[in-house]
Amino acid sequence: PVSGVSLAAQPPGGQVAEGEHLVLGCSVAAGTGPLSFSWHRQGSAAPLATGPRYELRAAQHWDGGRYHCTATDGDTTADSPPLWVTVL
User: Fold this and answer.
1) DSSP state for residue 18 in the 8-state scheme
2) CA–CA separation, 1 vs 71, rounded Å?
3) Contact 49/36 with Cβ under 8 angstroms?
4) What is the model's pLDDT at position 32?
5) What is the reported pLDDT for 33?
6) Cβ atoms 26, 80 nearer than 8 A
7) Angstrom distances, CA of residue 3 to CA of 32, 46, 79
8) pLDDT tens per residue, range 47-65
9) I want to staple 56 with a disulfide (CB 3.0 to 4.6 A). Which of 10, 19, 22, 45 is the partner?
10) Is 84 within 8 Å of 65 (Cβ atoms)?
11) Residue numbers in the chain where pLDDT is lower than 50
12) What is the model's pLDDT at position 67?
């Protein structure tokens, strides 16, 4: 089973100036087999993207909000804790 899903931001803390580059990364502490990742923002039903990284090349004010990633191995699914992204 997938467990220990974590989300990291660059710059750390998820604070970014408008127009700057933000990278979010998703990782798991445990999981077997091929893993797939999806990215979600609170208030958006459809996933924003798939894959272990999510990039905002030029962050805008409307990109701010609560993000999390979901990891699955096909059998089990686990979510990361949420990260609040702030665009200054």
Assistant:
1) T
2) 10
3) no
4) 78
5) 81
6) yes
7) 10, 23, 9
8) 999 999 999 999 999 999 9
9) 22
10) yes
11) none
12) 97
